[in-house]
Structure prediction request, 147 residues.
Amino acid sequence: MKKILALGSDHAGFELKETIKKYLIDNGFDVIDFGTGGITSVDYPDFAHPVASAVNNNEFERGILICGSGNGVSIVANKYKNVRAALCWNRELAELARQHNNANILSLPARFISTDEAIKTVDLFLNTSFEGGRHQTRIDKISLKEC
Prediction:
């Protein structure tokens, strides 16, 4: 995996994003931070769209999005054809999201996960491989033919 990641959050996820960003940089990753830059209230789509678009266009292999519940950023990201964003609040979910769904964006719920668990979840998400096989067949059925 490329050691460059797209990262974004809204105001509710800002502090966790900054902690994860530092952790990733300290562990050899290049991180492109799409914002937000503080705790002032903002709209999560303004930060989820650029991350999801960049992953969708293969500018980044993976991304991490964070908001209060993780739901908003995940919903936005999953509007993109080549994005499979997974809302994970523990390691097991992150591992399964990678193994079975080939998730390429990890969505974290800042208000519902400890910093320690978030970092361990990020580690597992970044270091777990997709199993392929029957799971690829299922992934191939995700995209709509026409809307």
User: Anything to note?
Assistant: The first strand starts at residue 4 and ends at 9. The chain has a mean pLDDT of 95. The helical segments are 14-26, 45-56, 71-77, 91-101, 115-127, 134-139.
